Amino acid sequence: MKKMVPIKIDQVNSDFEREVLRRPFGFKGGAMTNVWQTMACLQSESGIRKIGLGTQNVLWSDSTVFSNHSESGGNALMYAMSERALQLIKGASFTSPIELLDEILPEILSYGKQISSNPDLRTTFALNALVGIDNALWLLYAAENGMTNFDEMIPEAYRPGLSARHDKVASIPALGYGTSLEEIKGLVDDGFFILKIKIGAPGDQDQMLEKDKEFLSDIHKSIGHYETPYSNNGKIPYYFDANGRYEKKETLLRFLDHAEKIGALEQISVLEEPFWEQNEEDVRDITARDLFVAADESAHTDKDALIRIEQGYSTIALKAIAKTLSMTLKIAQLAHEKNIQCFCADLTVNPILVDWNKSVAARLPALSGINLGLLETNGWQNYRDWSRMKGYLPLQNASWTETVDGVYSTGKDFFELSGGILMQSPHYEKMFEENQCQ
């Protein structure tokens, strides 16, 4: 095994840009109107400088912080945690980004609890604050050790969890609760064959259930007859995300009973985060219905993911762009060892981070019943200036950056060029030209 060189972080800096959404993006009882894109600049003692990107999502990572503060206030808290992390690692030496992340995460979480006056601040909030820094650490790690591609950059101990090589990755749009049937049908007509659809309607549990049952019936009538070559049964798979809205398993089982009654159950492939994370009910009787029950935000770390696996959760929604690549590698390897399948979910990230997530999605073994990689990506649906943001890609016209008939092409060029993620973006480089790492 090649010995990694020790890297000393000599200078640090950060910045951010606000990107406006086309319309408020609502879930978990709140709605975002803009998203902060953060940058972490790290320079090593040898003079190599790398810039890592992050996308903040306060509402997803801790809805309590979002509801207790203004939108900008919540973002400022997360950004302050990023800045605190930069000051912690300035002057530090490391040989492994994973080990350095493990070292600083507890202190960053503790600092976040203090400044937010929230003793129950979720670990995911701290991880979200560390994404840009973690990405910069990986870029610095690769450059200092002479690594030129993503596969070489991943430590050997974590490669088994990313052993696949898909030449296609499904592009999965996300649809908020109450999305019109016309829009849903239009996306399928445009070639998208897996849609992430929010359930968990507003109201009490009985009201929510009745609305969700009606929504499912309408969806199934609208697109249930469509066919796709990418699923084993040839039918459109349904991917529902409840965002923890179901308080009890009994209520969820009534929803699934309705799905079976109308003939939709066999098409429900993924049911994500049905319960709030404090709900510790076993879900093996749900997975027995030949669908994947996925843990998302409740699987903050590999330790939390193990708890969900022991409760019967059959898949993990990985978010290298929300919980750091370092933590994602640990979760993916744990899932591999426990024979649990994974896919990649989005955080409404920018185009460059889509390709970071895509690099993981293209290497994860496919979910049973779906014969390609899976990647939720909804930034193109939600950012007002997505076209301008795509101009920040290092390789703007690369084939893998466009969805064609519902898939991204991740062939030979994608793997050889690491999806462009090891290249620096001129836009972000320019932002630090006059205001260097310091």
3D structure, described in words:
With 438 residues, the chain is α/β, with parallel strands linked by helices. The protein is built from 17 helices and 14 strands. It has helices at residues 58-61, 63-68, 71-89, 97-116, 123-144, 150-153, 181-189, 205-223, 249-261, 284-287, 302-310, 325-337, 351-361, 379-382, 386-390, 412-416, 426-431, and strands spanning 7-27, 30-44, 49-55, 93-94, 168-172, 174-175, 195-198, 238-241, 268-272, 292-295, 315-318, 341-344, 373-376, 407-409. A hairpin with a 2-residue loop joins strand 1 and strand 2 (30-44).
Q: What's the topology here?
A:
Elements: E1 7-27, E2 30-44, E3 49-55, H1 58-61, H2 63-68, H3 71-89, E4 93-94, H4 97-116, H5 123-144, H6 150-153, E5 168-172, E6 174-175, H7 181-189, E7 195-198, H8 205-223, E8 238-241, H9 249-261, E9 268-272, H10 284-287, E10 292-295, H11 302-310, E11 315-318, H12 325-337, E12 341-344, H13 351-361, E13 373-376, H14 379-382, H15 386-390, E14 407-409, H16 412-416, H17 426-431
Parallel strand pairs: 5-13, 6-7, 7-8, 8-9, 9-10, 10-11, 11-12
Antiparallel strand pairs: 1-2, 1-4, 2-3, 5-14
Helix pairs in contact: 3-4, 3-5, 4-5, 7-8, 8-9, 11-12
